[in-house]
């Protein structure tokens, strides 16, 4: 038998959960109901985001990512991005609570705080470790984060037609890097050192960064169109998260000023600091070292990057 709308969505159970921790024994105000509903809404969106991030990371975690799988990864990412954009707007609803009206029930929270949102921490771990003051913080406990999966995938980028780990690959990659450095030096002699140090790393990081520069530089090649789209969505996701964090901080500033948080942090100062975190550091960094198309090293093995039939 087909379920009813309410059965399918388990609405009866869902709509009983807005009472506060004491259940029906304490009558909550209209403002507190609003406060609980807004939080629960966010947590439901977090659930969606976690699921989509896992799907993306699963696709990118395989040792060989088929070209046909990339559109699916991008699709998952686009859903996450739209959800974050929507969540950034959702603070507006929270802001209809007046600061004094919040104080009327703030004590009920005790030390409870968004700080303790385990779904938030799971989202962060799934994205990848954050770089704070030059240090990696918060490695995921198990499985590959999106960041780690992306790094491994980038490292395998075919560069000038040279396939990862094939014979002579290291030489080809070195040649590409030195050609790129010369081309960059001609245009920007004053900032060339920055680019030299970008590549001056161990073999694996060097190849990964060369792969990233290669995709960003020869983006019009058919075989690179999905990889570059994926990189754009990773940047857009991080941007959307930063904007979401920023709009939360501004809402908090409006609501509690410079008071400390219920979780015990410094409040707005702490939240503003979290907007400085970056996960995809190289994806951001590469933007300051790109060069215009007609100055790029000559592309080799162009046919390698054409679409191929079965
Ligand atoms: C009146 C509304 C709100 C106020 C005044 C507020 C305030 C704060 C403050 C001060 C913090 C810093 C930690 C602490 O010391 O407590 C924080 C963290 C956090 N809040 Fe809110 N918040 C509000 C609404 C929300 C809502 C609706 C959500 C949605 C789930 C949310 C999610 C979070 C998260 C995830 C963190 C942890 C951020 C991090 O550590 O990166 N907050 N909040």
TrEMBL record:
Alphabetical GO biological process terms: L-tryptophan catabolic process to acetyl-CoA; L-tryptophan catabolic process to kynurenine
- Give a single Pfam family match: Trp_dioxygenase
Tell me where on the tree of life, at the top rank, the source sits.
Archaea
GO MF term list: heme binding; L-tryptophan 2,3-dioxygenase activity; metal ion binding
Query: Which Gene3D superfamilies does the record cross-reference, listed alphabetically?
Result: 1.20.58.480
List, alphabetically, the InterPro entries matched: Trp/Indoleamine_2_3_dOase-like (IPR037217), Trp_2_3_dOase (IPR004981)
Q: What is this protein called?
A: Tryptophan 2,3-dioxygenase
UniProt organism field = Marine Group III euryarchaeote CG-Epi1
């Amino acid at each position: 038998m087909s379920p009813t709308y309410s059965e399918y969505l388990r609405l009866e159970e869902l709509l009983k959960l807005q009472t506060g921790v004491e259940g029906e024994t304490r009558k909550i105000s209209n403002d507190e109901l609003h406060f609980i509903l807004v939080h629960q809404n966010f947590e439901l969106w977090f659930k969606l985001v976690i699921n989509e991030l896992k799907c993306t990371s699963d696709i990118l975690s395989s040792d060989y990512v088929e070209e046909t799988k990339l559109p699916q990864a991008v699709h998952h990412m686009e859903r996450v991005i739209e959800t974050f954009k929507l969540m950034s707007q959702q603070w507006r609803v929270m802001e209809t609570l007046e600061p004094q009206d919040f104080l009327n029930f703030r004590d009920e929270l005790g030390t409870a705080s968004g700080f303790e949102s385990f779904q938030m921490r799971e989202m962060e771990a799934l994205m990848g470790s954050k770089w704070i003051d030059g240090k990696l913080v918060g490695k995921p406990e198990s499985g590959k984060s999106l960041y780690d999966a992306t790094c491994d995938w980038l490292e395998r980028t075919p560069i000038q037609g040279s396939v990862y780990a094939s014979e002579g690959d290291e030489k080809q990659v070195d040649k590409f890097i030195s050609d790129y450095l010369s081309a960059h030096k001609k245009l920007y002699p004053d900032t060339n050192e920055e680019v030299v140090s970008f590549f001056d790393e161990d073999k694996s990081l060097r190849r990964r960064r060369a792969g990233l520069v290669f995709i960003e530089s020869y983006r019009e090649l058919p075989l690179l169109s999905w990889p570059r789209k994926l990189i754009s969505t990773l940047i857009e996701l991080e941007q959307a998260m930063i904007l979401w964090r920023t709009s939360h901080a501004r809402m908090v500033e409006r609501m509690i000023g410079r008071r400390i948080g219920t979780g015990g942090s410094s409040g707005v100062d702490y939240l503003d600091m979290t907007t400085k975190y970056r996960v995809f550091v190289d994806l951001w960094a590469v933007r300051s070292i790109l060069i215009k198309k007609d100055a790029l090293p000559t592309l080799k093995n162009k046919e390698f990057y054409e679409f191929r039939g079965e």
